[in-house]
């Protein structure tokens, strides 16, 4: 098991190195000069040269890349001249909002997919299965921004059940974790927890629907394949109940592909959902990146690319390790 984990960690480090190199080269290939943007349109060539020297843009590309990696590892992720503060401070201020939203969306999509797929597959009737397949196709095909607008029109404008696009809602009395729902619980404020949950509901469900449809289709296909295995016939012959077979025997054997897909979906959600965050005025990392692109603040964009790559790699390594924990065949191989 130790060798298995070590190999995954080495692979992750190499992948992160490739992602950092790609991000560095792509942004350097953009024809815009960051020094001219910082100095302003009326700056002289001497002033632009001074800014380039300050930023290290006058050095050879290999030296620039080495400095970029060393500074990144030390926690210096660059300086955002459009916001007037370090990039790391900006990301750390907005990251809890994005992570909280992503975790709630993932929990809804993953738990909902498991429950609905198992119940529909083993219900003994074709109609629940057909309805679930139709819903999964709809969830996968509808753009999230369109769902967000429909939810706001229906549940905010018409029914008034949930808050509108006003962000995260009231701030907890003390921000221990940055997750509003958890901080309200730690403070013993159930009313505040419920209000934070209401603000999370629409954006989280909006993000989760597409992933929910994909996971339902994937898990349903694996459940059907596993349900025809000989051991399932033996369990039926022994008189084991339908739901006991479904949740206790078929689901664990059909779960590994869904675990992989779930890891990728979680990494995607943690990487930021720009349009949904913008529509609901959610103060997450997605809005920060959009502002960085519009203002041509390349330090923000570069840091976000590397952070997203790290999240994908970290979640991928975690899923690989969970594979070895869940399935003994992976450990032996």
Q: What is the end-to-end distance?
A: 10 Å
Q: Beta-strand percentage?
A: under 5%
Structural class: mainly alpha
What is the CATH homology-level superfamily? MetI-like
CATH architecture: Orthogonal Bundle
Family: Belongs to the binding-protein-dependent transport system permease family.
Subcellular location: Cell membrane
Protein name: ABC transporter permease
Keywords: Cell membrane, Membrane, Transmembrane, Transmembrane helix, Transport
Description:
This protein has a single domain (88-332), classed as MetI-like (MetI-like fold, Orthogonal Bundle), CATH 1.10.3720.10. The model has no long low-confidence stretch (mean pLDDT 79). It has helices at 2-29, 34-39, 45-55, 61-73, 87-121, 126-141, 144-158, 180-186, 190-227, 230-237, 242-253, 256-270, 274-279, 285-294, 298-326, 328-332; strands spanning 79-80, 85-86. It is mainly alpha-helical and 333 residues long. The longest helix has 38 residues, at 190-227.
């Amino acid at each position: 098991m130790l060798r298995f984990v070590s190999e995954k960690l080495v692979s992750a480090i190499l992948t992160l190195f490739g992602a950092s190199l790609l991000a560095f080269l792509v942004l350097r290939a953009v024809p815009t000069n960051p020094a001219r943007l910082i100095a302003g349109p009326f700056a002289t060539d001497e002033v632009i040269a001074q800014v380039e020297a300050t930023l290290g843009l006058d050095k050879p590309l290999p030296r620039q890349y080495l400095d970029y990696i060393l500074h990144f590892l030390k926690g210096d992720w660059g300086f955002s001249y459009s916001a007037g503060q370090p990039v790391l401070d900006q990301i750390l201020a907005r990251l809890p909002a994005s992570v909280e939203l992503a975790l709630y969306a993932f929990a809804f999509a993953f738990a909902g997919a498991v429950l609905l797929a198992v119940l529909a597959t083993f219900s003994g009737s074709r109609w629940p299965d057909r309805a679930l397949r139709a819903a999964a196709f709809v969830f996968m095909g509808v753009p999230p921004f369109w769902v967000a607008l429909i939810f706001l029109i229906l549940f905010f404008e018409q029914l008034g059940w949930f808050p509108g696009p006003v962000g995260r809602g009231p701030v907890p009395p003390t921000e221990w974790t940055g997750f509003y729902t958890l901080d309200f619980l730690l403070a013993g404020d159930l009313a505040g927890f419920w209000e934070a949950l209401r603000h999370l509901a629409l954006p989280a469900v909006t993000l989760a629907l597409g992933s929910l449809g994909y996971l339902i289709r994937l898990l349903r296909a694996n459940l059907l394949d596993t349900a025809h295995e000989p051991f399932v016939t033996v369990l039926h012959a022994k008189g084991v109940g339908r739901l006991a077979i479904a949740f206790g025997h078929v689901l664990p054997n059909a779960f590994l592909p869904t675990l992989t897909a779930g890891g990728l979906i979680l990494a995607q959600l943690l990487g930021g959902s720009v349009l949904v965050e913008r529509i609901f005025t959610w103060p997450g990392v997605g809005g920060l990146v959009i502002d960085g692109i519009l203002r041509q603040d390349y330090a923000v964009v570069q840091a976000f690319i590397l952070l997203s790559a790290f999240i994908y790699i970290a979640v991928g390594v975690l899923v690989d390790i969970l594979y070895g924990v869940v399935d003994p065949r992976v450990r032996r191989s």
